[in-house]
Amino acid sequence: MIPMIDIYSLLLLSITLIVEISLFTCFFDSLYLYSKFHAPTRLWILLLLFSFGIGILGESLQNISVILFNVSFTPFIEAIFFLKRTLGYIGGITIIQLAYIYIRKAGFSLKYTKIMRNMTGIVVPFFVVINLFTSVPFPINEYGLSQCQISILLIPILYLVYIPVTSITVYNINKIIKEIQNQKTAKVLRFLVFSLILLAFSEIITSHSFYMFGNGIYSHIFNYSLRLAYSLCLLVIISKYRYFLDLIETYFDLRAIYVISKGGITMFEYKFEHIGRKPPINKKLIKLSEMVVLGGFVYVIAKGFEQMMNIAGEIRSLQIGDMTIYFAFGESIFSILFTTQENNLLRDKLQEYVEKIEEYNNGTLKNWNRAITEYIKPDNIMKRLVNQIFR
What we know:
alpha+beta; Rhopdopsin 7-helix transmembrane proteins; Beta-Lactamase; 2 domains; two-stranded antiparallel sheet
């Protein structure tokens, strides 16, 4: 039998291929960045992309095989649906866990977030088991396509669970966004939140859309159009703002940054305060950073590190208790960054910060001996660069 190919089947095929290519591109790029920076939340991002990507892979392969070769996966439809729904629920839990991590880092109340996380932990296994026995297979349409849907009795429960969970998550993430001083970072984070909400709800809607629209080709195109929307959103974030997820993870771990001249004089200091919580930051850790810098201890160590780097290269950090100290050296200055989480991206960002300061000052820092007050004005370049690179 010759496959039925027309404008609608070609449209579905095109959308299907774009969705899978986008999701797998995001997955492998995230895998590479995790191997490079070892940022913990990258593991959750990988699980998220894997869950949704593999979850719809069976359905995508069915679209491709039926449209191009008239080979149907009908005997495996229920198994594919069960796998997709199970991985989709795991992806939903992953989104909740990511929100929990950022809310905890920001220092906001975890009361409702913990309830939300515990509730999804109970509900998801329930849905997985029920889906195994109650999924509803729809008949094959004129294109040879078929699919299962969740039981109609589960649809109200699905919405009663996910709407409150999503509302609480968005509310807390919006509080975090208000903390961010760099407007570009805030916009990208809003776009990411929108993408994840679109992802979660598109998978919820596609789990029962055939009840509303039937099993025709239009329903399949509708389902994959929703997936196309969130997969392209994620692809934009991955490609255009590649290091955003790694940087936002460290946002609430930054404690203080100092710029010191080669003569040992502190030229600039900045403490990363967060106005939305009290106390704003760990005062003990800030006190430690002040003692280390003002006591000259870091200058002596940094000079020793600089000499060692000329020989062996690559020693750019120091661990003191819960504090990680990063060093970056320029021709006339060096900078020190204090953080409570180790992340290789911060080392690269700190080096970028030093290079931009020296580029802006065009060599005038070599003989710098002026007052520190010149560098603590609100509009000075060092503070602007902190917001641009780290905030």
